[in-house]
Protein: LysR family transcriptional regulator
Amino acid sequence: MKIDLLTTFLEVSRTLHVRVAADNLYLTQAAISSRIKLLEEELGVQLFDRTQKRLKLTAEGHRLVKHANEMILMWQKLKQDVGVAQSNSSQLSVGSMISIWDIILQDWLQKIHRNLDDVHLFTHTFSPLELRKQVISRLIDIAFLFEPPFVEDIVNEKVATVPLQLVSTEKGIKQDEVDNMVMVEYGESVNSQILRDYSETNAIRHHMNQPKIAMNFILEAGGCAYLPKQICFEPMRKGKLYRVEGAPEYSRDIYAIYLDKSSKRQLIEDALFLFPYMRK
Structure:
């Protein structure tokens, strides 16, 4: 099966429109339709319901989406591994929850770039469950999560403890005066504490899964949120955000996970050593 058939299928499944998919892939509509038909013939199933005005994935099409993504990722990794081998360099495939990127990983990637000259970085964003699957299947070398799995053959390493503080766009307010609070997704252990402490105040109005999105939202609309000190330092310095007096502080641990018997274990350990927490 050709990878370009799967790539075309995924684009059509995402847009549910042949013309839009054709524009995005710089192909003709006829080429898109031909590829989908060829893929359906190879698999012996119908992937799209064409009886309605708008395309709709069939049950078989929904099942193929997951496998197609995995196959394309595996193909990309294969090409990268072969190319890296030819250049006598190393590849490090890193996956993370999207919220962790802005908290600690951007700086870490810069440190890898500056200190590990022969490393080629490849980054991916997945859900916590998908990250575990990708590590186990060796599609990514190292993943970052708030709550690591306790699974045989997977190593868990705490790489950071992130302080979370309640900040507001209004200066001088106290904990019992907050409103328009944005609840940010930090994992069950932390979010349950926040909900317990603020459940009776009716302050929580919105829920967002990324600290950076929550920060930008309250800077524009006003309000408050628990944010990592790392990302709200600059707005606080400029007088755009202020600490809420008397509000409890929380912290969120971040973990790296990787296979115990990974062929890249030494490289992974060298990369993790660049976190200040690992050198304590």
